[in-house]
Every structure is written in structure tokens, then in C-alpha cells.
Hints:
The protein is mainly β. The protein contains three helices and 31 strands.
Amino acid sequence: MSFKLNLITLSLLAVSTSGMAANFGVGQANTTAVDTQKYECKRCTNVTGYRGEVSVAAGYNDVSDIHAGNALGTAKDGGIAAVSGDVHYQGESGYQARIQAHQLGMDNGFAHLSGGKAGLYEFSLDYDAIKTYKAGDVESGLWHNDGMLTPSDSINIFDLAQRREKIGLGFDYGQDFYGVFVNYSQEDKTGHKSASLVSPSPINFGLPTDATTKQFDAGINFSGQNWLTELSYFGSVYENHIDHLSLPYANDVYSADPDNQAHQVALSGQYNIGRTFMNGRIVTGRMIQDDNLIQMTGNPLQNWDGQVDTLDGRFALTSMVTNRFRIGGSVDYSKRDNKSSTAEFAQYNFNSLTGAFRQNTPQDIERNTYKINASYRIASGYRLQAGYDRKDVERTFSDREQTNDDNLWLKFNVRALDKVNFNLKAEHANRSGSDYEVNELTSSENNALLRKYYLADRTRNAVELKVNYSPINWMSLDISTRYAQDEYDDTQIGLTESEDYGYDANLNIAFNQHIDGYVFAGQQWINSNQAGSQSFGPADWMADVEDEFINLGAGASYSGLLQDKLTLGVDYLFSNSVSNTDVTAATTNPYGDYYSYNHSASMYADYALNEQMALKLTYRYERYFDTDAANVGVNDIPGMITLGDINHNYNAHQVMLSFTYQLR
């Protein structure tokens, strides 16, 4: 089942609200014994009125492929315009307001409006627009018309793109020891995405998207001298306005994403005693999915009547035992109780009925996670940390009902050296569990030797090193490198081994007060080995997958020109990704090409007309190329309807002139 608001998201929301954050600010200091009668702030000023900046931009796009809109902010070819800004208002009686905007008028932008009285209440209004592009002018031999996919001799042309528009309203009120918040948002998602079906030959088509997600959050919190608590509710409702799709000769050949909703109530709190801090939460929820099912022979249910009840809990403690030694730990509990409908369903063997019946098996999942850690300051600037994590998972009606993950890690931090700081981390992890069983209730159609990678026994060893080097005060170099290896020694069919390693380097240089620059580089390699069988027995073929990613970049800026009025800058980025897959059976057969690269550059000139007004001229360039052998032309494969060759190969340009006015 597909739920737009899952347990992990809601659990994070439950502990990330403003009322639950530990407050160690100056405002929370105990000043009861301090005599402040003779204190006088001679430089304090009460700034009222408006401040900030407003920017208006206009320019031109030279775009031949809408994919460039992901980098340029809009895929429109020709004239473009946008408004941005950040304006604050401060009244004399404590009333304040803020307006923020970023690239309004483009395909990707946002606006934020808030106002209220400081320390008492605040209203907010938000608008976000996000559009992602996959391909433009996609060709299809199917026309979508009110739920009907109609084959046609003429070609249907459309864009594979998704647009999200979200509007949100919020209210916060707080006074003395309590506070409340209420938030509502609605997101509309439209566009097309790629989909496929078999009826009777493979058909690829553009699936229309038209859905709405509504979310409502509310809560109340209380605080004391050394405690905080909050009771909150989070709710989400997903509505899909696209129904099941049909072909002229077959009804409901493609099922729509079902409507669903999720609700959670959370109680969380924090308490400290001296140098010991405790926090916890308990969250209970329910996810519901009750759309009608597509009716077919052997289906006894009219609707799914899906329901999953969730229970989540956490308790964490950290304590400074001495000025050098700190200990901490946490316990997490999560339960997913699937109470969805069960019934006897007729079994299919490919396209024919077998005459056998089998009951669907709703899966329950229960997780317990335990963590303990310690930190010891050996000397000033030298710290040693160690920890142990344990995760126990139980799944009903699964190939493996119990898995146990153990993880031991160690960190060593050095901050005492004059010009060099470094962090070293090493970890060893192991997964084991109950017997792996393939039975009639789980996956009798699978090879008995198959081990799913997330359930199989696994040993992981990883190490990571981070170094910061500042040889002189105008230069800084950051380097990090990492290596991790996973071994599945007991797996005969499935993923048998994988390794992931790479590095990142970042150099920042400030030559003088006017000239600075940066250079960065990063690479990552992911290699994996997989064993398979065509004979439903021991392994008779192997696959080696090698993925490589690289990112390179550089930039510089020069200010202080023309009597400190002109600043020039340039930025450049190169990225490349390559995936190679070799399948070895009697002979070695490589898969088709799958790689992409991107060059992007930006140059700008920022000129200050006076203390309040400035002009900025920006030029942006993108060169993008990718190739995926799985993308083929409309008529390249007899009997198959495809979306055509939707790989990319283009150059895109953007010129933008903006005017900025400073409010003082």
C-alpha cells in the first residue's frame, strides 16, 4: 500500500517541533543572583521600520530540451522574468512581519509571509512551486482521453514532467509556560510520468498525474524550569483524481494509485537533572486505504479495507559523569500491525487459473533498537568515542521472520594540533537471524537458494577519515575519504558482495580582501557482485556491476573594482556518472551503455549604483548528455510500443539582468 505520510516522517516531525528543542540559549540562563541595576547598554538601538532587499530580474533562455529547466529554474524558451526579495518590518510595540520570495514567476520558486507580535503569536502563509523535468516532446502511440488509452496511427506528443504547487497556513501562539501551533497545507501534483503494461504485448505510455495531498498538524506544549512536554497531532489525506485506465478492448488494465490517509498522535517530553538530560516520545497512529479494487475473476473483495496501526516509542538519556566522561543511550520501539482484509484468492499461473486458492497474508513488523555510547576527553583537543547499536526485527509471513543487526563503532577526534584537525571513524557490523525459509505462505515461486539482501546474513566493515588543514590563515583544505565492504558469505543466489569507497576534497583560498576562490573534487565507486540461476537451481550466471561518479568544480570572485562598486565572479561544475554491467554465463555479455555527464558554468558582474541600488548581469550555461540503452525509438522493437528515445544531448544558455533595491 502507498501512504504519503509514513511512520518515520511523522516520528521525525514529532520531535522536531520548536517546543521540543533543547534550549541552551543565553535567555535560559539563571540570572537570579546577578545584580543588573548598574548595567547600561550604550550601543543598543531599537531598530524599527522596514529593512531588507527586493530584486526584479528579466532575461532570456535558449533551451532546446526541457531537461535544462532542472538547472535553470524554468524550461521556458525565450523571455523570462522573476521577483525575489527578503523584507522585514519591526514595529515599535513589538509587532513584526517578514516577506520572502525567491524566483517567483519561474517554474521553481517560493514565497513566505509571516507576521505577529514577538514572543506571543505569529501567522504564516507559504507558497512553493517545484517542477521536475524528465523529457520533452515524448512520442507515444497511445492517446489518453478520460480514462481510455486509445491506440492511434498518429503520434501523441507530451512532456514527461511533474509540477507540485503547495500552499500552507500556520499559526503559533505562546505565552509564559505554554504554547500552541496549528498548520495546514495542500499540495497539488500534476503532469505525466512514464508507465508500462502488458496487454498482450509490452506498452509504454505517459501516465497522467493529478493528485492532492492535504496535511493538518496541531499541538500544544508546556515548559518549566527544567522540563518540556508536547502533545501533537499529524494527519495526511491523499486523493488521486486519475481513475483506473482502460484500453478499447479491455477495461481497467492499469490500476490507479489508491486514495489513503494517515493519522498520528504524539506525546513527547524532555527533562534534565543537573548534567543528565532525558527525552522521550510515544506515537500512536493509523493508516487507512479503502479504495475499490479492480474486479476480475477470482477476486472476492470489492474494496481493500486496508488498515495498519502503528505504535512508536523512544527514550534517550545522556549524562556528563565527569568533565571528561560522558555516556548516553537510547531505546526505540516500532510496531506495524497490519489489520487489512484477508480472503481466499484464486491462484494464477502466468495467465491461466490453477484452480487453487490461497489467502493473502498481511505482514506485521516489530522493531527494537538499542544504542549505547560513551565519550572521553583524553586531553584538551583529544576525544575518544565508542558505541554499540543493536536492532532486532520480527516480520510475520516472511522468508526470514527474525533479523538481528549488531554494529560496533569507534571515533577518534583530534583538535589540538596547530594547523591540522582530523576525525577517524571505524565500524564493524553483522547481521544474523532465524532460519531462512521459503514456504507456501511467502515465496514458493522463488528459488530456495535465493537470499534477499536486506534479510540475508551480512558482515560489514567500514572506515572513514576527515582532515582539515589550514597551513596559513588565507587557505583551508578539507579532505575526507571512506571505504565500506559488505560480504554475504552464506548467499548462493542473490547479492554476494559489494564495496563502496570514495573521497571528497575542498580547497578555499582568500588571496586578499578582494580576491577569493575555491576548488573541489569528489569521486565514488560502488561495485557489487550478484549470482543467479536460470535453471531454478544452483548459480549458473554471475553479474558484476560497477558504478562510478565524479564531481569537479572551481570558482573565484574579484571585488573592489571601479572604486569598490564592481564584483566579478565565475563558477564551474563538471559531473559524470558511468554504470557498467557484465553478465557471465557461458560467455561474458556486457549490458548496453548507461552514462551521463554535465558541464555547467556561471559568470556574473555585480555593480553597485549607490548604497541602496545594484545591478547584476548573470550568464549561465549547461552542457548535458546521457545515454541509456533501455531507451529505444518508437518502432525499433517490433510489437512493442515505447516512449521513443528520451535520452538527452543539448546545450542551454540563460542571460539574466536583475535590479536590487536595499531597504534601510
